[in-house]
Amino acid sequence: MRAESITKQATPAVRTAVVWDALRAVLAARARETGRERLDIVDAGGGTGGFAVPLAELGHAVTLVDPSPDSLFALERRAAERGVGVRAMQGDAADLGEILPRDGADLVLCHSVLEYVEDPISALTAVAGLLRTGGAVSVLAANPVASAIHRALAGHFDEARAVLEDPQGRWGDRDPTPRRFTAQTLAELLSATGFQVGEVHGVRVFADLVPSRLVDGEPGAAEALVALEQAAATHPMLRDIATQLHVLGHK
Known about the structure:
alpha/beta; 7-stranded mixed β-sheet; disordered N terminus
């Protein structure tokens, strides 16, 4: 989000600022290409609408698909509180092709989904079927390098080493995340499913390392941290240690 809009209790906004920068850019470009200000967006696995509701507030037609009835209920309540409409549908990412029509979306969000689906290739193939030519998918996924850093900082050195050695980027049997992705593996997945891979951004390079009390309690700290995150997002070394990696794939 824009630095000037970040206020009290800003930590969550700081953590998504880089993603919002990328989404605004792709939406603006798509609007210019199509001549339509109101774009069709699908949020696959969008949970309670953290992205879907703000996108609806921008005037877009948003459909959120999620397997959890509780999340969909919370989404509807959030949307009602903000005075916008978001179509809520229950389903899994791999079933998008059965739930929604082909070639009907300008943008599909696939945030924190590929880590958990049974088959990431099938999920992205389903996403590709939803998109119109010229549309884009926004992929946000957990990064194994960051997981190794965080386990080490917590004193779990064996688990940190395990992350680096495991093909799925997991630190052990108790790891709640089934798989993590490097920038290379995300690019390979997108290419394999027919997308042209755009620039990769690091998300939460510093935000997860800075105590929230410093961000929420110090005047100007949130804005400064957003600016730092934006500068680090494409830095050739810092990007690859971010908690999450964000990449746009174009159809």
